[in-house]
Each structure stands twice: as C-alpha cells, then as structure tokens.
Amino acid sequence: MKKRRYFGTWRILVILALSVGVIGCDQGDDVAELKLSPESVVLTSNHETVRFSVAGGLRDLSMPLSWEVSDPQVGNIIAAEGTDAEYVRLSHGINIVMVRDQYGAEGYATVNSRGTRTERNDDDPPPQDDQD
C-alpha cells in the first residue's frame, strides 16, 4: 500500500510541474530582437524617403508594430502599414529608427542624413564672396 501511495505522489508532482511549465510558456516571456532592413542608410537631400521593413524576429501575434525615431527634426516616419514603414528626411544629422512589437521586442536602424552643397550646417563657416 505504501508503494502505491508513493507512486501517486510522484505522479501528482509531475503533473503539477508540467502544468506550471506550460502555463509559464507565454511567447512574450523571452523578448526577441527584430531585424530591420536596411539596417543603415545614407540620405543626402531633404524630403528623400526610404522604406524600412521588419526582416526577421516576428512571432505569432507580434502585430501591431509601433515605429519611433530618436530625432523627429532630422526625419520622421510618415506612413506605416504591416511590417513596413516609410521614413522621410527633414534635415541633416543622425537618426535612429526603432520598431517595437506588442511583446516588447525591438529593432533598430540608423539613418545618416548628410548635408548637401546647398545646405549649410551650423558648424560650417559662413559663405564668402569671391569678389576681388
């Protein structure tokens, strides 16, 4: 009789352990990294755009995605649908584009908005006339 009771106790412990393990296996427990494509881009003129896409790391029910930028004066997300977002350059500087899913997984891309000859950076010396 004692042997049977011992076996029954172990069976209950195993069932409890498995049920706790299954209940704790939520997809949001381990935050994965989202991959953006392109990871880095250089834009040279104002109002130039680039389309970013989430290229990896998505899981079931990751949607909706939220998109942000580190400096909205350098550029901003102007449209987002599904796994894609369109970024527009507004001025020179470095900007980080970030995407986040509902589980908190994040992905990053870098936008380098370089100045052009028609633009003037604040650090540039003032233009000089070439009149003799």
Structural notes for this entry:
The chain has 132 residues and is α+β, with helices and mostly antiparallel strands. 17% of the residues lie in helices and 36% in strands. It is built from 1 helix and 8 strands. It has one helix at 2-23, and strands at residues 35-37, 40-43, 49-56, 66-69, 75-81, 84-89, 93-100, 106-113. The strands form 2 sheets. A 4-stranded antiparallel β-sheet has the order 1-3-6-5, with no helix packed on it. The chain is elongated and about 75 Å long. The protein starts with a helix and ends in a 19-residue tail after the last strand.
Kindly list the characteristics that best describe this protein.
elongated; Immunoglobulin-like; 132 residues; 4-stranded mixed beta sheet; alpha+beta; 8 strands
Reported CATH architecture of the domain at 35-113: Sandwich
Could you tell me the mean pLDDT?
79
What's the N-to-C terminus distance? 113 Å
| Widest beta sheet: strand line-up | 1-3-6-5
Q: Give the radius of gyration.
A: 26 Å
Largest sheet: 4 strands, antiparallel
Superfamily (CATH H level) name of the domain at 35-113: Immunoglobulins
Tell me the β content. Answer: 35-45%
How many beta-strand runs?
Answer: 8
Structural class determined from secondary elements: alpha+beta
Which word captures the global form? elongated
Looking at the structure, the CATH topology of the domain at 35-113 is Immunoglobulin-like
Could you give the order of the helices and strands? HEEEEEEEE
Number of helices in the DSSP assignment = 1
Low-pLDDT segments: 20-28, 117-121
**Helicity range:** 10-25%
